[in-house]
Amino acid sequence: MTLMETRKNRSRRPASRKTAKGERIYAIGDIHGRYDLLRDILRLIEAHSRGLPAPESLHILLLGDVVDRGPDSAKILRYLHEWTQHARGQVMLLGNHEEMMLRAHAGDTQVIQAWLRVGGRETLESFGLVIPEGEVEITPRLISDIRRALPEELMKFVKSWPLTARSGDYYFCHAGVKPKVSLDKQSKKDLIWIRDEFLQSSSDHGALVVHGHSITPNIDRQHNRVGIDTGAYRTGVLTAIYVEGADMDFIATT
Question: Is the whole model's pTM more than 0.85, yes or no?
Fold first, then answer.
């Protein structure tokens, strides 16, 4: 795995919005079980931040969907749990894949089958539980095996993750927001699942929404939102956005 410097055609340039005064923020898109890319992007963020004057506060946000699809969900969750015990400034936002994992752990039979199809198998395998390919019968034994495989301490940790974060004119969430609904009245379902209604909207949402969830081959920068899910689990490109005051920049692995 190699690292790529900040994209040459994405150099710092003024943004129309500003963060809260003194805040430097790096938000990272959907990781989906790629521990290798998470470590790469954190090294790139550290190098990027070292090249700037010291901030009053530094925050690293993960926009959700750190689990499923890729091979190392267990490793990522353990790393993040340990990281938050020894450092400050990290914020992990809940994504729809974390929500499915939590509901599967709680024994929700309506969710388990769907979760297995979209990456839950890989997550369980990373915790040592191998599920056969194809449709499986959701039996009490399987539910019990899932509960044992997913550590209670880590599930409590994930359950504590907030849905949103905000700094000045920037609003961070996993999937997006429902257009023409106040940001303080958004539903959990929309924040972690919404897609077309949000992506196709030209409405001013009351802040610049930074999100993941919907994969695009490149950064999806619009006047009312910025999407940074570049499909890391299959492309190897994990993208982060840097914002500080009126500055904006993008960092990516390759």
Answer: yes
Ranges of beta strands (E only) in the chain are: 13-14, 23-28, 57-62, 90-92, 164-167, 170-173, 208-211, 220-221, 225-227, 239-244, 247-252
pLDDT digit string, tens, across residues 34-53: 999 999 999 999 999 999 99
pLDDT (mean) for 84-110:
95
Q: Name the token pair of 124.
A: 């369980």
Going along the chain from its start, the domains and CATH numbers come out as 8-252 (3.60.21.10)
**CB-count exposure of residue 248 (10 Å: 0-12, 13-18, 19+):** buried
Question: Contact 104/120 with Cβ under 8 angstroms?
Answer: yes
Q: Reduced to 3 states, what is the DSSP secondary structure of residue 164?
A: strand
The token duo for 28 is 């990272």
The predicted structure's pLDDT at residue 7: 38
Q: How far apart are CA 196 and CA 214, in angstroms?
A: 9
- Each as own residue / partner, the long-range contacts of residues 5-8 (CB below 8 Å, 24 or more positions apart, any chain) are 5/44, 6/44, 6/48, 6/249, 6/250, 6/251, 7/250, 7/251, 7/252
Side chain identity at 91, as an amino acid letter? Answer: V
Query: Which residue, among 64, 65, 24, 68, has the nearest Cα to 46 in the 3D structure?
Result: 24
Q: Give the C-alpha separation, 7 to 130, whole Å.
A: 39
Minimum mean pLDDT range among 44-48, 69-73, 129-133, 154-158: 129-133
Residue positions counted in the chain: 254
**Beta-strand (E) ranges in 107-246?**
164-167, 170-173, 208-211, 220-221, 225-227, 239-244
